[in-house]
Design a protein that fits this description.
The protein is α+β, with helices and mostly antiparallel strands and about 850 residues long. It contains 17 helices and 41 strands. The chain has a four-stranded mixed sheet with strand order 14-9-8-17. Strands 10-11-13-12 form a four-stranded antiparallel sheet, with helices on one face. It has a four-stranded antiparallel sheet with strand order 21-18-19-24, with no helix packed on it. A hairpin with an 8-residue loop joins strand 12 (about 290-295) and strand 13. Helix 7 packs antiparallel against helix 17. The radius of gyration is 43 Å and the shape is elongated. The model is unreliable at about 540-545, about 780-805 and about 840-850 (pLDDT under 50).
Length: about 850
């Protein structure tokens, strides 16, 4: 019902209809490209207006403001800023794979610098942009009225260039978006030709030509851990949805002064270089990426170059991994191939996009052929009239002279010679010079040529396969004229998703555990080398009635296995143990790392680089039992732990070491007895089984440690009162497992019982820690008789060369009590020892294990 000029409307219906109208306007008229020419309306109008102004690649540049005014005034009434922004993008070599506008002046930079105002810049079309407008004047595309119905504009450009794929497109509409990556023209042309000949081709077939996106800023496309780059690209091309991961191109080079540097020469697409440099500086300043000492942007007209200076101790590959992880040096490009197909938004695959291009160009060439045929036929018709006139030239002249006026002459010619109005008018308009003999021959030659052309064009229209051949020929011409090499490298590397471990530098760490279950790791360089027999430094602040029990030296990438007295094992990466740069820190309660049961305590720690089935873990108990289990049985340890050894009710797991079948094991007891036997005599058993007798214990004796008797090594014995010695491994005879063994130390009240034992080499270093937290780090460098052994592989310390003469441990026979290694406070006892190489070889398995 209408009341005057007021019409009642349901607001829900009005909102729905108005919103749909708005949404479709944005989708069709602003944000999404047409699948045929790959252009949004504003881009299409810019190119058409510039062509209409005569701004081809051979003309001079004109002010951008004039171009923007032309576009806005005639075709695109949406504001000058949006038009200029669109034109600027078409002129940026870092945004467009093949630029369509040749800009002169400041059109922005990869540093996200804004372009100069339109009154300062100038522009014209590039040569390749001419391919987008080629034959537009031959009725190849439809035209529609402009916004005020005063002019006509093309619905779509003829687009010989497969612009949708080669330059890509991005835009956000209402309820949908598009993000199509740019591609290499040569590859796309090859794929078009192949698909034209093989309509049933699959995505895999087309990917033999189109390897993947080809970004103007180059970079490297990489894959993920479980999905290679080729599979990611294939998924995106097959479905129209997907992503590719792009990395900056960087290399590690040596700088002056022995330092190394990372040089970045290519960035991922649409990465802000200035923002990236600022982000790297921020991360280095906040210590989120360690090892960076300097940063410079040396980019110039010759190319991009970002130099990242590294500290001497930095590991370049790990710094680079951190940069990939935390900065835009690695980013994802999400592919969403949405385009307008027949005026409707649709997701298209690679094959569909190519098919749409082939179908569109087929239509364009068909329309061009019809147009040219019509023009040729019209010309032939006129030439036929000329031929008649030339054959009767005298009569024609006489007829014209005798006529009262031009209309009468035209009618007379039509009636006398059988001409139509068009032919008669053409004869009247003919210049007298065309009556010359040479001109007459030219008309006859032109007529013959036109007849041949008409025959050719009619044959084209009658044979669609010939039109398709024309499409292929034009594509081949495009490839020859504009094709270039691929810029973006496609790598088979599957490391785009980096784990936390990839970002952790390899560092030597001291992991300690107290009696009350406080664990921590400290960089090993916090402990300086000291003289044998010194008092040491404070290594761990312990609580009242707390004492250090275990110590192990490990690499940050190692797996640290914690074995408990109940026969269970827990596994933690070394870098996951809370770090504290202070030696005196108490550490973190181990219950925060894994769930140990009440009354359960850690009695052994082992650091492993990997889990090999050829390596075995030898586990021993207080009562002298031993068990051998393959190392790969512990490769996966659940958070709640695993059973490592089945124990008798009154027994406890006490020591663990890593061995091979070719090794000899040596077990040492608290009262100074030891036994050496071949590991191969032990049968490998499962995790949940129990052990067999390793050494027969007497009286109140109990097992202290187990280690591998390596050739040319020494057995290091350390007592609870800080005494110790080295004894050649050759003094320990190989025996049968399960015997009483031989004496390894003369135990007295002064020395105390054996606290720990290790098999060491003279090139290693030694760390001792007391129950109250005192730490002594020294070198195992002394020969028999007390003469020092020269060392080159030493840990950095503040001890000068003259002091090294007094560093070392005496080499003595088995039946001796040793010398003082560490001076203890009253009531304090040696808690743990660890022997380690001064410089950790890359990939070397750590075997350090120590217990009280």
């Amino acid at each position: 019902m209408v009341l005057g000029k007021v019409r009642p409307v349901n607001i829900e219906d009005e909102m729905r209809n108005s919103y749909l109208d708005y949404a479709m306007s944005v989708i069709v008229s602003r944000a999404l490209p047409d699948v045929r020419d790959g252009m949004k309306p504003v881009q299409r109008r810019i190119l058409y207006a510039m062509d209409d102004m005569g701004l081809t690649h051979t003309s001079g540049h004109k002010k951008s403001a004039r171009i923007v005014g032309e576009v806005m005034g005639k075709y695109h009434p949406h504001g000058d800023a949006s038009i200029y922004d669109a034109m600027v993008r078409l002129a940026q070599d870092f945004s467009m794979r093949y630029m369509l506008v040749d800009g002169q002046g400041n059109f922005g930079s990869v540093d996200n610098d804004p372009p100069a105002a339109m009154r300062y810049t100038e522009a014209r079309l590039t040569k390749i942009a001419g391919e987008m407008l080629f034959d537009i004047d031959k009725d190849t595309v439809d035209f529609m009225p402009n916004f005020d119905d005063n002019l006509k504009e093309p619905v779509v450009l003829p687009g010989r260039l497969p612009n949708l794929l080669v330059n890509g497109s991005s835009g956000i509409a209402v309820g949908m978006a598009t993000n199509i990556p740019p591609h290499n023209l040569s590859e796309v042309c090859d794929a078009i030709n192949y698909l034209a000949d093989n309509p049933e081709a699959t995505v895999e077939d087309l990917m033999r030509y189109v390897k993947g996106p080809d970004f103007p800023t180059a970079g490297i496309i990489v894959g993920e851990k479980n999905e290679p780059s080729g599979e990611m690209i294939k998924q995106a091309y097959a479905t129209g949805h997907g992503r590719v991961i792009i990395r900056a191109k960087a290399h590690i080079s040596e700088a002056t002064g022995g330092h190394e540097q990372i040089v970045v020469t290519e960035l991922p697409y649409e990465t802000n270089k200035a923002g990236l440099v600022e982000r790297i500086a921020e991360l280095a300043r906040d210590k989120k990426i360690v090892g960076i000492s300097g940063l410079r942007d040396e980019s110039d007209r010759q190319g991009m170059r970002i130099v990242i200076e590294l500290k001497r101790e930095a590991v370049p590959q790990q710094v680079l991994n951190s940069l990939y992880k935390f900065t835009a040096m690695q980013s994802s490009f999400f592919i969403n191939m949405v385009a307008l197909v027949a005026g409707q938004p649709r997701v298209v695959s690679l094959k569909e996009a190519l098919q749409c291009y082939i179908g569109f160009r087929n239509e364009v060439l068909t329309r061009r052929t019809r147009y040219e045929l019509k023009v040729a036929q019209d010309r032939a018709h006129i030439l036929e009239g000329f031929k008649i006139a030339l054959d009767h030239i005298d009569e024609v002249i006489a007829t014209i002279r005798s006529s009262a006026n031009a209309d009468a002459a035209r009618d007379a010619l039509m009636n006398k010679f059988g001409l139509d109005q068009i032919q008669a008018q053409a004869i009247l308009d003919m210049q007298l010079r065309r009556l010359a003999h040479l001109e007459r021959q030219r008309i006859l030659d032109e007529y013959e040529e036109i007849i041949r052309k008409i025959s050719y064009l009619e044959d084209l229209l009658a044979n669609p396969r010939k039109i398709l051949s024309l499409v292929k020929e034009e594509v081949s011409e495009l490839r020859a004229e504009y094709g270039d090499a691929r810029r973006t490298e496609i790598s088979g590397e599957a490391a785009a998703e980096m784990s936390e471990l990839d970002l952790i530098p390899h560092e030597r760490e001291v992991v300690t555990l107290s009696t009350r279950g406080f664990v921590k790791r400290t960089p090993i360089d916090k402990y300086r080398i000291q003289h044998r027999g010194g008092k040491g430094i404070m290594g761990m602040g312990t609580r009242e009635e707390d004492a250090v029990r275990l110590l192990v030296v490990a690499d940050t990438h190692d797996n640290v296995l914690f074995f408990t007295n109940h026969g269970k094992v827990f596994s933690i990466k070394c870098h996951e143990i809370p770090v504290d740069n202070s030696r005196t820190a108490k550490g973190t309660a181990i219950i925060n790392l894994f769930p140990a049961a009440e009354g359960e305590r850690v009695t052994a720690m082992v650091a492993l680089t990997g889990f090999s089935p050829d390596d075995f873990l030898l586990m021993t108990t207080v009562l002298g039992e031993i068990k051998k289990t393959a190392g790969d049985s512990f490769a996966v340890v659940r958070t709640s732990g695993l059973i490592a050894m089945d124990l008798a009710p009154n027994d406890e797991l006490i020591a663990v070491c890593v061995a091979k079948d070719s090794d000899d094991a040596i077990m040492v007891t608290e009262n100074g007895k030891s036994i050496r036997f071949a590991v191969s005599t032990l049968r490998a058993s499962s995790r949940t089984s129990g052990g067999v007798r390793g050494v027969r214990l007497g009286g109140d004796d109990k097992l202290v440690s187990i280690d591998i008797a390596e050739p040319q090594s020494y057995v290091l014995i350390v007592t609870s009162e800080g005494y110790g010695k080295l004894t050649k491994i050759g003094e320990y005879p190989q025996q049968q497992r399960g015997g009483l063994g031989v004496k390894t130390l003369k135990v007295t009240d002064k020395t105390g019982v054996v606290a720990a034992a290790r098999v060491v080499s003279l090139s290693q270093q030694l760390m001792l820690i007391s129950a109250d937290g005192q730490v002594t780090a020294t070198r195992v460098t002394e020969k028999e008789g007390g003469f020092p052994v020269p060392q080159s592989n030493t840990l950095a310390s503040d001890t000068d060369l003259s002091e090294q003469k007094r560093v070392g441990i005496s080499i003595l026979s088995r039946n001796t009590q040793g010398v003082r290694l560490m001076r203890l406070e009253e009531g304090d006892k040696v808690a743990a020892i660890a022997a380690y190489d001064a410089l950790l070889p890359s990939g070397k398995e750590g075997k350090q294990s120590s217990l009280l």
